[in-house]
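Progress note, sequence design subtask.
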């Protein structure tokens, strides 16, 4: 290993590397290779990025297929897309300070390349490609699974908190029908008031929610409606 900082990184992330050169390649931006082309021939990380993208897609697919057996195909596809989008890759990269180890040209550095989202996402995919090439798919799965689980759980929480949007999406499939929320009761003293809200589909009550704020009571009403419509699976 020619880079002691990179060696520390690999040990910290518990990556049992065999070929150190492939990780140096994973962290070599095209701008760095171009600046040094008269000194040495260097491969940049674009090919490993390509390989890593495919390995990442497969790893996420296997996790969702094996660990979330109740998810339908459409939901698995949408979830996988969310797990591998650039925003998620940047989050993964930031969690392990990946940009710190990227070798880039001086011009790219001055232009703020180290903070560029696309650079971080590409570097993460290149790292996955390096792990796959060096150690195989099982090593990629072992490295990625804790990351995927954390992001999946975070996505699930956000998804669960926005029941109103989910209900609206369902109803939009039939443009002739409309959703509305009506506060049907409020009780208790001013400092501890409870609001009761009904969600209506045209003139039909789909669900009722009670909470300490109007917004939360609407969310709970939407959740009750989704449960009635069998769109919320409590086991997911």
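Output:
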């Amino acid at each position: 290993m020619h880079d002691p900082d990179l060696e520390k990184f690999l040990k910290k992330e518990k990556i049992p590397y065999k070929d150190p050169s492939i990780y140096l390649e994973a962290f070599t931006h095209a701008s760095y290779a171009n600046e040094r082309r008269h000194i040495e021939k260097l491969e940049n990380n674009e090919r490993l990025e390509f390989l890593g993208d495919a390995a990442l897609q497969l790893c996420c697919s296997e996790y969702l297929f094996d660990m979330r057996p109740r998810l339908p195909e459409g939901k698995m596809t949408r979830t996988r897309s969310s797990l591998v989008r650039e925003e998620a890759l940047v989050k993964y990269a930031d969690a392990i300070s990946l940009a710190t180890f990227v070798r880039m040209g001086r011009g790219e550095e001055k232009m703020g390349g180290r903070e560029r989202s696309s650079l971080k996402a590409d570097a993460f995919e290149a790292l996955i490609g390096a792990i796959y090439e060096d150690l195989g798919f099982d090593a990629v799965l072992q490295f990625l699974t804790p990351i995927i689980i954390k992001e999946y759980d975070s996505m699930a929480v956000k998804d669960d908190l926005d029941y109103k949007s989910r209900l609206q999406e369902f109803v939009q499939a039939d443009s002739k029908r409309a959703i509305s929320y009506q506060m049907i009761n409020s009780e208790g003293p001013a400092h501890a008031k409870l609001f009761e809200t009904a969600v209506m589909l045209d003139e039909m009550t789909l669900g009722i929610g009670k909470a300490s704020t109007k917004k939360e009571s609407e969310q709970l009403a939407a959740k009750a409606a989704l449960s009635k419509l069998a769109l919320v699976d409590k086991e997911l």
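DSSP finds eleven helices and three strands in the chain. Work on this subtask will continue into the next period as scheduled.
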